[in-house]
Amino acid sequence: MEYLDFELPIKELEEQLDKCLVIGQESDVDVTNTCKQINKKLIETKKTIYKNLTAWQRVQLSRHPNRPYTLDHINALFGETYLELHGDRGFKDDKAMIGGLGKIGGQSFMIIGQQKGYNTKTRQYRNFGMANPEGYRKALRLMKMAEKFGIPVVTLIDTPGAYPGLEAEERGQGEAIARNIFEMVRLQVPIITIIVGEGASGGALGIGVGDRVYMLENTWYSVISPESCSSILWKSWEYKEQAAEALKLTSADMKKQKLIDDIIPEPLGGAHYDRATTFKTVEQYILKAYDELKDLSTADLIAQRMDKYTKMGEFKE
User: Fold this and answer.
1) Percentage helix, strand, coil for the chain under 3-state DSSP, each rounded to 5
2) DSSP bridge pairs for 110
3) Strand extents, DSSP E, the chain
4) Burial status of residue 94 (CB atoms within 10 A of its CB: 0-12, 13-18, 19 or more)
């Protein structure tokens, strides 16, 4: 387990607990009460730390190297029923954007999401979860396929943003994202969107227009990352913590602003501390959302979706 800076008190207590257990196993000394006291203090410390997280600390948790990525969710939710589909039928297959068909119980879903890497090699292979235009065009192709066969769509968002390179711009990055947003608004099947990690800028919006939009508790969703905001406003990354607070990017902020529908709770310490519970909770939210949407007519589904997003903007004359 890797620890973030603010988790170091937890690391120390867990190491003490491990040593206490080893002493109990390798000697005749009864350390039961000592271990209980350490464990009690560990639980209290965890509750204190995770109950009072700052916006920047939640950003750090969303990027935790042990946090489950999109493929982890897919493999846990859909198992052997998952069939990955490739390519945009125009340029190539984007490894940062994955998608395919799968079943939860007896219900089929088209699952689409951004995938990051676990080490240097896979991060390069997945382009750090930053999709090119062909990735968004692949996502749209899969959505249109789902629409054709009446299959609901689930999107999992985890990206630091769409790829900003010259080649991406040459192939129409902005147009690809705008086209996805336009088409998703009027897609004739239910769309369930979940932010499972980072939800940055248009890269997230390109697959983020949903009838139900949920955020895992320790994720963020914003027009820009705290570091980029800091570099623009203060000409330095040193003010990223202040930027994170000002951006109101946490799940609680998004719920308060009515930009998402609900927050998916995570186990104490984050999704990586208890992956099985996290996956089960995500599955419950997907099925709950589908039950709420499955009986709506196409006209009502699209009308409610449009109404949902038109209400998000406010202005004064």
Assistant:
1) 55, 15, 30
2) 101, 153
3) 83-84, 97-104, 107-114, 153-159, 191-200, 212-216, 220-222, 262-264
4) buried
pLDDT of residue 261: 96
Give per-residue pLDDT as tens, 205-237.
Answer: 999 999 999 999 999 999 999 999 999 999 999
* Inter-residue contact 35 to 43 (CB < 8 Å): no
- Count the neighbouring beta carbons within 10 Å of the beta carbon of residue 128: 16
Which residues have a Cβ under 8 Å from the Cβ of 73 and sit 6 or more positions away? 113, 156, 196, 279, 282
Pairwise CA distance, residues 228 & 27, whole Å: 54
The pair of three-digit structure tokens given for residue 113, joined into one six-digit string: 């999401």
Task: Report which of 55, 79, 47 is spatially closest to residue 279, judged by C-alpha positions.
Answer: 79
**What value, to the nearest 5°, has the Cα angle with vertex 7 and ends 38 and 13?**
15
d(CA 84, CA 138) in angstroms, rounded, equals: 12
Which residue's entry shows tokens 């607990």? 17
Q: What is this structure's pTM?
A: 0.92
